[in-house]
Amino acid sequence: MIxxxxxxxxxxxxxxxxxxxxxxxxxxxxxxSEGTDAIxxxxxxxxxxxxxxxxxxxxxxxxxxxxxxRVPVIAGTGANATAEAIxxxxxxxxxxxxxxxxxxxxxxxxxxxxLYRHFKAVAEAVDIPIILYNVPGRTGxxxxxxxxxxxxxxxxxxxxxxAKGEIARIKELLALNLPRDFGIYSGDDATACESMxxxxxxxxxxxxxxxxxxxxxxxxxALAGDRAKAERLDGELQPLHKHLFVEPNxxxxxxxxxxxxxxxxxxxxxxxxxDPVHQDLVRTxxxxxxxx
Length: 292
Description:
8-stranded parallel beta barrel, 4-hydroxy-tetrahydrodipicolinate synthase, schiff base, 4-hydroxy-tetrahydrodipicolinate synthase activity, EC 4.3.3.7, 8 strands, globular, alpha/beta, TIM Barrel
């Protein structure tokens, strides 16, 4: 089972929107040297919605090659069409990814049976460990715990990234009779520390993009049950957890990485650069966490 701080890595871009492959390489090396425990390539934070299919697969391929098996690489391969999700997941496997992360189909708003059949179809079509991803605030549908329990019985569905942002939901999931090797990962940085202290297995994180070392240390403390240390570190990170979402993700985190001289300032429409009114908030959060 993958555990710890799992960065949902951004896809660096030049101001014209072209992918900056050199910056991506540097980011991967930095994360590994700073202790990041695994990398999600082309998750939704990686702007999967605006990359072409060829770019999407190439980012996965390059991150796998750069990681050199030093940390697991999880390929973001979700789509709102099941056939497309199968195609992307197969491409992720072919690129050498260790697992795939599939967001619930967005916009379609499928019922629970539709969600079950969607993920079951992908899992049966592609023999790769699959992590489900529930983020109802972005997709318009909520993968309920009862459906997670059904899906967890499928051999290669091995975990869930839960980003509803409610501790009550994490408690409900942890109370299910799930296989012992089924991972429950927070997808909400603000509640991730408490989620792990309750028994969760890690955090698929936006904050880890800018504070990889501290996020790793916080996750390790929480997983070890050291509440005092975990909460102390998380307290320093809380301003980032909050202000990296002052505008839709990944606008603020890409601005922050540019402020840290890690990447250029590129985004793709319909995303636009962060409003200057928010810059001092994010800059102060970076300083509080020791990133600047």
